[in-house]
Design goal:
Layout: H1 3-15, H2 19-25, E1 26-33, E2 40-41, H3 43-56, E3 57-68, E4 74-85, E5 98-111, E6 114-122, H4 124-131
Length: 132
């Protein structure tokens, strides 16, 4: 599988809520750079993040566009997040099933057939406005 196909499969797994499938595609020492907060390194911390996201948000990604660079190891993905805010998190608005549609993007790196970095970006003030 090419790096692009690996990333596309990763997002297919995301939309299917197939967390095990996602984890099978990432390297044990994955670097996860979230939009806000500390960088997470390692599959255990990444799995904890997925569990938190699953309990707090119901999300589906649409309008996905993928971009690669000449080496084929770095992939950018632009998408729309269609979500439901299920459970509030500290420092964020209270959750009561609010829906939101939010543009976002991610940058991923693939080495030796595994995703080694995921960096996700979106407009947090816009998201807060949408759920407030």
């Amino acid at each position: 599988m090419s790096a692009l196909e690996i990333v596309q499969k990763y997002y297919t797994c995301f939309n299917q809520k197939n967390w095990e499938g996602m984890l099978a595609l990432v390297d044990d020492s994955i670097v996860h750079e979230p939009n806000q907060g500390e960088t997470r390194t390692g599959i255990e911390l990444f799995n904890s993040f997925l569990e938190l996201m699953d309990s707090s948000y119901e999300e589906n990604l649409t309008d996905m566009t993928f971009f690669t660079e000449p080496s084929g190891t770095k992939i950018a993905c632009q998408f729309t997040v269609n979500g439901i805010y299920k459970k509030g998190e500290e420092g964020l608005p209270e959750a009561h099933g609010q829906t939101y549609v939010l543009p976002a993007c991610a940058f991923l790196e693939v080495n030796n057939g595994k995703i080694t970095r995921v960096s996700t970006h979106y407009n947090l003030p816009l998201w807060m406005k949408l759920v407030s």
